[in-house]
Design goal:
about 325 residues; Polyamine Oxidase, Chain A, domain 2; 2 domains
């Protein structure tokens, strides 16, 4: 923030995760002023990476999305560009055509955000019409724009859009996302386990040796994701208790000999994965100048978020062409 209380843009994008940055990137070539707002302290969202010091060494944990796949042709091109830039690499341990950001999952999001005007640590609190413009009140300032694109989890979009666009709010309110407790653990010795573990049933849905991913180094580090059912059971636990319970689950389901971790922490993702899906077509109203994007509108994956954001950008661009022709 530069001290002013009022900012104006042609397009304001709320949400600086994969969907919002995909839309911003696609629209950046149109010559319009685009501002992206995100309540997070920095790039990542659900592709977050957390850095901690363990035994005097800086270690990074991918505690959100563990990897991504690339099937859409346009997304494959984007991933190839990330690979060329050194911010993505294949990770065969997660399966064929699986990729990770390097040196952390958030590297791809960082690279996307770098050339854009992204305002981190700014929470959009309410929206309203102000003549021909949208007015978005945030925790620190007012932003005005002719077009607003909302690219946040469905539950958050439903609240933000309740008064400004009740029809879009209702669509978002129909989506229910499963929570996920994620545990970050480091050990002094290597565990006798494969690099990945996944299960359709039981308390642990996924676990991965984070230190085995491309571009990582250092300690024996693991990320453990509780299943949706187990996460709901523990939803209100303090994170210390959740971490201890899920670590015990991890040793039980994998059969590894329990050992005390050097480091143990947990993060609760309330909106980890949309349990139901909406319409894959972009949702944009050119008359009102408002649109929504997100993995919950396409598919609950990193690729789904990117494709949704890009499709929304294309709808905005087409509407602009139609209005000037």
């Amino acid at each position: 923030m530069d001290g002013h209380s009022d900012y104006q843009a042609d397009i304001l994008i709320i949400g600086g995760g994969m969907a919002g940055l995909s839309a911003a990137t696609a629209l950046a070539t149109t010559g319009q002023r685009i501002i992206v707002l995100d309540k997070g302290r920095g790039p990542g969202g659900r592709m977050a990476a957390r850095r901690v010091e363990i035994a005097g060494e800086q270690v990074s944990f991918d505690h959100g999305a563990q990897y991504f796949t690339a099937r859409d042709p346009a997304f494959r091109e984007a991933v190839a560009a990330w690979e060329a830039a050194g911010v993505a690499a294949r990770w065969p341990a997660a399966g064929e055509e699986s990729w990770v950001g390097t040196p952390g999952m958030n590297a791809c999001v960082k690279a996307m955000a770098e050339p854009l005007d992204v305002r981190w640590n700014v929470r959009a609190e309410r929206m309203s019409r102000d003549g021909a413009l949208w007015s978005v009140q945030t925790s620190e300032a007012v932003f005005r724009a002719r077009t607003v694109l909302v690219a946040v989890p469905a539950e958050q979009a439903a609240v933000l859009l309740a008064d400004a666009a009740p029809d879009f709010s209702a669509r978002a309110a129909r989506i229910v996302s499963a929570p996920c407790w994620a545990v970050m653990a480091a050990f002094a010795e290597t565990l006798s386990l494969p690099d990945t573990f996944r299960a359709e049933t039981g308390p642990v849905s996924w676990a991965a040796r984070n230190s085995a991913k491309p571009g990582r180094a250092g300690a024996e580090t693991w990320v453990i994701h509780a299943s949706p059912l187990r996460s709901r059971e523990m939803i209100d636990l303090p994170k210390v208790e959740a971490a201890q319970a899920l670590l015990a689950d991890f040793f039980a389901v994998t059969g590894a000999v329990p050992v005390a971790p050097q480091h143990l922490d947990a993060h609760r993702w309330l909106y980890a994965q949309p349990a139901s899906r909406g319409d894959k077509a972009p949702i944009f109203d050119p008359q009102r100048g408002i649109g929504i994007a997100g993995d919950w509108l396409h598919s609950p994956r990193v690729e789904g978020a990117w494709v949704s954001g890009r499709a929304l950008a294309q709808a905005v661009y087409q509407a602009r062409l139609a209005s000037t022709s």
